[in-house]
Amino acid sequence: MSAQHAQSKIAMHRHTTWLLTLLSLLVMQACDSDTPTGPLGDLPSEPDLGSYVPPELDMAPIVSPPPTRLDGSMDPSEGSYGAPCEVASDCREGVCVTAGEGHICSRACATTCEPFPDGQAAYCRYDPAQNSDNFACYPSQNRLCQACVDPSQCDGAPCVETSEGLRCTQPCRDSADCPSDFTCQEEACLPVNGSCDCGSSNVGETRVCQQQNAYGQCFGEETCDPAEGWVGCSAETPAQERCDGVDQNCNGLIDEDVTSATCQVSNEHGSCEGVEVCVGEGGRECFGPTPSAETCDLVDNDCDGQID
């Protein structure tokens, strides 16, 4: 509303008030016999509105401050960093990440992140569950026993070696802060048996195991023991192949690369040279001519180097 329009409305209101006052006096004179009926010189005159200037009104829109929580932290506005979201398009920066049982808007990062508006810490990491290769800011979550390469992927907790490889731990003050089958060591929850995948919930469960060395890799099965972890791997230890019909190096081939050698086939008539051949479970056999008594046939029958 402009100042000129406001002044016009005020003038109209004053004029109307003056007319109503005049009408009231006329009615009173008609009803009161003691009231003189002379000229109305004592009646109030119409006020002079020409000198009245109403104050200027501030017509700027009222902007409410962002709402605050009881702890004094700010609520994020829709689509901003830390605001609730369902899909990436809900967020101004196109990044929607998991936060507990829901999702919040986030942003891409390289190494570090500023805290979210509600005051909770934010960590720069990659989450394969997001189906993206990009690093983003995530709120602190319980990533106990999740695969990791360094502590930055564990939301501030250590990344330690277990029987399954590198896994995230969980911060703790004592073992009461840790789940069952874990103990608090150096302010981190660690599995009591060194395994993240074997505990009281899967006693007796089996899984594939392996033995590996320079000769090859053999597979077997091992069993979960909550006190000790995965135990009793049935895999054979790989070894150099022997001529015995067994696959010692677990490559799916039997008695391969077994070398041959010369050998002697001997009896009472003499000894003839042959070749030793691997025949599997029977071991090695010597294949060559069998010595026999000399006959007149132009052949060295007894293998002594002389014919007939």
Q: What attributes characterize this protein structure?
A:
mainly beta; three-stranded antiparallel sheet; 24% strand
Q: Output the structural class.
A: mainly beta
End-to-end gap: 139 Å
What sort of overall outline do the alpha carbons produce when their principal axes are compared? rod-shaped
Number of spatially distinct domains: 4
Note the main sheet. Answer: 3 strands, antiparallel
As a percent range, the share of helical residues equals: under 10%
Q: How many strands appear in the DSSP assignment?
A: 14
Query: What's the order of the H and E elements?
Result: HEEEEEEEEEEEEEE
The low-pLDDT segments are none
Proportion of residues in extended strands: 15-25%
Compute the CA-based radius of gyration.
49 Å
Strand order of the largest sheet: 9-10-11
Count up the helices.
1
Q: Roughly what is the average pLDDT, rounded to an integer?
A: 80
How is this structure best described in words?
The chain is mainly β. The protein has 4 domains: 1-36; 88-201, no CATH class; 203-231, no CATH class; 243-308, no CATH class. Helices cover 9% and strands 24% of the residues. The strands form 6 sheets. A 3-stranded antiparallel β-sheet has the order 9-10-11, with no helix packed on it. A 3-stranded antiparallel β-sheet has the order 12-13-14, with no helix packed on it. The chain is rod-shaped and about 175 Å long. The termini are far apart. The mean pLDDT is 80.
Layout of strands and helices, then pairs:
Blueprint: H1 3-31, E1 96-99, E2 102-105, E3 122-125, E4 136-139, E5 159-162, E6 165-168, E7 182-185, E8 188-191, E9 206-213, E10 216-225, E11 229-231, E12 261-267, E13 270-278, E14 284-287
Antiparallel strand pairs: 1-2, 3-4, 5-6, 7-8, 9-10, 10-11, 12-13, 13-14
